[in-house]
Amino acid sequence: MSSKRDHSNLKRVIVDFKKLTPEVLKLLVERYPDGYDDRNIISFKNAQGERIEAVEVLTEDTKYLVKISAKLEYTMENYDEDDYEDFDDDDPKAVVEPDPEALGDVEDDD
C-alpha cells in the first residue's frame, strides 16, 4: 500500500476571493505560512477558456483551488484567527476585501 494519498477522487472547488471562507483562509495560511510563490501557483483554463492562476489547499474530501490576487496575498499576510471568531467557518461574508489603499503598490490582477 502506498503512503501517498490519491487525490483524484477529491471534489475540486475553484474559489474566488469574494467566496473565500474563514476555513479556507485558515488552511491557506497554515499551508503557506510565509506566503506562496511561483512554485506554488497552478495555472489552468476554466470551462470558459480563461487562464486561471491559483494555489491549492486540501481537506479530507475537497481540493480547493484559490484564485491568486493582491487581495488574497494581503489578507493572508494580515491573517488573525480572532478576526473570524464571530463567524461560521463556511461564511464567505466573514472575509472582507482589504482597503485599496492598504494594498499600496501591490498590483491586483483580477
UniProtKB/TrEMBL annotation:
<feature type="region of interest" description="Disordered">
    <location>
        <begin position="80"/>
        <end position="110"/>
    </location>
</feature>
<protein>
    <recommendedName>
        <fullName>DNA primase</fullName>
    </recommendedName>
</protein>
<feature type="compositionally biased region" description="Acidic residues">
    <location>
        <begin position="80"/>
        <end position="91"/>
    </location>
</feature>
<feature type="compositionally biased region" description="Acidic residues">
    <location>
        <begin position="98"/>
        <end position="110"/>
    </location>
</feature>
